[in-house]
Amino acid sequence: MRAARLTGWRAPLEIADLPDPACPPDGVVVQVLACGICRSDWHAWTGADPDVQLPHVPGHEFCGVVLEAGPEVTRWRRGDRVIAPFILACGRCPDCQQGNQTICATQVVPGFTVDGAFAEAIAVPRADVNLARLPDGMDPALAAALGCRVTTAWHALTGRAALKPGEWLGIWGAGGVGLAALMLGRAMGARVAVADVVPEKLALAQALGAEVAIDARGEDPAQAMKAATGGGAHVAVEALGFPVTAEAALRSLRKLGRMVQVGMPAGDHARVALPWDVVYSGQLAIYGTRGMPAHRYPALLDFLTATRLDLTPMIARRVALSDASAELALFDGPAPPGVAVISDFTR
User: Contact at 8 Å (CB) between 245 and 252?
Assistant: First the structure.
């Protein structure tokens, strides 16, 4: 199979012909239809994620068609179209049994702990526990985003911060997960303010329904968001994993506000100093979040159906496998608006 393989930190990915993946007894082999290129993949590319060992195939945000199912698999068979969350839980431990699969102690993470989906095919262990069915008619490029950015945003808003209709949602970073949070928040009845340093991203956010767009290059963007939202956001989403946006997210909240750390703090940003005086005086709540439990897919898909929410405006670029290196390098600076998805694995 063709795959894009990381052989050196920050080096161009090597397009290689690798052996087809072996099917796990409890898993499946999936022909990849689409795979998103995410900032988390950039962390792996730069060497900031300690789980990644070279050589390595990145890619954790994918959907596809089942080519083969192992003998222990009961729910899936050849030809099924599926989506996979990027955290593959065991389904048996106490945390999994309580519905908290994202903290499973023996989790498998494609693109990080094992080879990922920048490839024509991928082996997915623990298939009965983790896979969800790809809805009929859903664009594979969009379905790929349901493996990470959309699901992460959904769980942040509903499973962690409990966003309510009428509340102000402040989003710091208008990348893929920020756009997903914007569109989901609007569909949930929230009012949305977005901050970013790229004017084109702010323009896209406004086109997608943001009432307030804050140019974070200004003198005090957190205060600007507080003023624009009549006293501060009720919920703030930090969607980049940077110290400056984590602090700004907290400072943009009104009293009793909730902040969700969605962006991945890694490398030089793994330890961040926060304004604890603001947390204390404002009686703020800080939530961490990572991914979404697989059992929550039906609720998300039902919500998308009920609200007729079209998330395809997130998809800005459909690229070839050979374009992955250039897309990863864009995350070294303010990346262009929208999400890039690998949809052509022949080039």
Answer: no
Give yes or no for a contact between 149 and 61, defined as CB atoms under 8 angstroms apart.
yes
What pLDDT does 82 receive?
Answer: 96
Instruction: Compare 28 and 147 and report the one with higher pLDDT.
Output: 28
Nearest-CA neighbor of 218 among 197, 193, 238, 199? Answer: 197
pLDDT one-digit tens code per residue, 227-250? 999 999 999 999 999 999 999 999
| Angle, CA 118 vertex, CA 112 and CA 119 arms, to 5° | 120
Instruction: Find, among 204, 211, 203, the residue nearest to 185 by Cα.
Output: 211
Picking from 238, 207, 203, 204, the residue whose alpha carbon sits closest to that of residue 221 is: 238
Domains of the chain, with CATH numbers? 2-148+292-344 (3.90.180.10), 150-288 (3.40.50.720)
Q: How far apart are CA 169 and CA 77, in angstroms?
A: 41
Region 100-124 average pLDDT: 97
Identify the sign of the CA torsion 170, 174, 180, 184: positive
Query: What does R_g of the chain's alpha carbons equal in angstroms?
Result: 19
Nearest to 165 by CA among 180, 193, 194, 187: 187
DSSP codes, 148-192:
THHHHHHIIIIIIS---TT-EEEEE--SHHHHHHHHHHHHTT-EE
């080519």: which residue's tokens?
Answer: 67
Q: How many Å apart are CA 243 and CA 330, to the nearest integer?
A: 20
* Structure-token pair, residue 340: 């890039």
CA 216 from centroid of its chain's CA atoms:
22
Dist. CA 285–CA 289, nearest whole Å: 13
Provide CB contacts within 8 A for 251, sequence distance 6+: 222, 223, 226, 275, 278
